[in-house]
Write a structure and sequence with these properties.
Largest sheet: 7 strands, mixed
Number of helices: 3
Strand content: 25-35%
Mean pLDDT: 76
Number of strands: 9
Strand order of the largest sheet: 6-5-4-1-7-8-9
Order of helices and strands: HEEEEEHEHEEE
Length: 203
């Protein structure tokens, strides 16, 4: 189960991590994600670059875990299976149950569901970019130390449900600090990975 895998990676004597990121901005018409009666919205332009990012971990037993974050509304079961199948077809030998994907839950990104206009075309494009990001992460593996912290991360993330129903303030982010020592330069690279206290759809 997931807890067992987490314990194995946490207790590893040597841990490696790698990063890969690709743009998922389409160059063709798309529908935007939404909800209720606003679910069918045509995309009218672009303000920012959106990404699919992969963080790969490998322990001293050679077991590999791939975790994806996609700018989008949700990553449901069909999306997760499409990702795993795309990686397998490309020659990735990481077991399907060691590949996870979650979404940033943005309602202003293209819809990846296939029943909307250009949804299937966009999903196929995202899968192509996801494979590139995944292999880049696997090729980038380097010795890693991880630390966990909790606090404010200005300019990066915030808790959107800041004032809770009972009046308490939930203003802290839980942040995973990944420290990597590059073999060639001996430098420490600090990378922040957000752990959102929100509605990320994780499979």
């Amino acid at each position: 189960n997931a807890l067992t895998r987490k314990e194995k990676f946490t207790m590893a004597k040597i841990l490696y991590s790698g990063f890969g990121r690709e743009s998922i901005n389409p160059d063709f018409p798309v529908s935007l994600s939404g909800y209720g009666d606003n679910y069918k919205r045509p995309g009218l332009g672009r303000e920012n670059t959106i990404y699919i990012t992969c963080v790969a971990f490998k322990n001293d037993e050679g077991k590999t875990l791939m975790v994806y974050t996609m700018d989008g509304l949700m990553a449901n079961e069909p999306v997760a299976e499409a990702l795993r199948e795309s990686l397998a077809k490309a020659g990735c030998d990481v077991p399907h149950d060691q590949i996870y994907i979650c979404a940033t839950h943005s309602h202003s990104c293209p819809a990846i569901v296939t029943h909307l206009a250009h949804g299937e075309e966009y999903r196929d494009f995202v899968m192509e970019q996801a494979v590139k990001a995944g292999f880049a992460a696997l090729e980038d593996l380097a010795p890693t130390t991880m630390k966990l912290a909790k606090g404010q991360v200005p300019g990066m993330a915030f808790v959107r449900h800041y004032v809770m129903n009972d009046g308490t303030i939930a203003g802290d982010n839980t942040v995973l600090l990944i420290l990597r020592e590059e073999a060639n330069r001996g430098q420490i690279i600090e990378s922040l990975v957000r752990i959102f206290p929100m509605m990320s759809n994780i499979l």
